[in-house]
Amino acid sequence: MASADTDAGIRELLSSNSYFGLDEDQVTILVQEKVAALANSDALLSMAGPYKVATKPHGHGDVHFLLHSAGLVERWMGEGRKWVLFFQDTNTLYLTTFLCSLGVSVRHGLEASKPSEFSGYASQGQRSRGVHRSCRTDN
Asked: What InterPro entries does its record include (predicted)?
């Protein structure tokens, strides 16, 4: 996921490094929209000038909308994919426990699992029958 500010640079980085060993068609870049930026915790709008509201990329939550609107979810399902890893730069510890979380999700038939934002170690999942289960995946 990129923004209008980072899209060109990301594409250049990938191209100049031969997509780091991937085929070009294995990489999909989704560009998120910009939204009004807030200046403080009182939700005052940040201003880029006297008559212009400052903007920022929409953020992590936009990935789900972009996956749907770009048709990637349908394409991946058609390709038989079963799992998707959402790696977001504010949750780098999750990479240390991802395989454990995936194993727990498969073993218990979870359709979705979400790492704790605190440490990436606690996970919460939901089965299609609505059963919620929480677990700790220490390494």
From this structure: Nucleotide-diphossugar_trans (IPR029044), UDP-sugar_pyrophosphorylase (IPR039741)
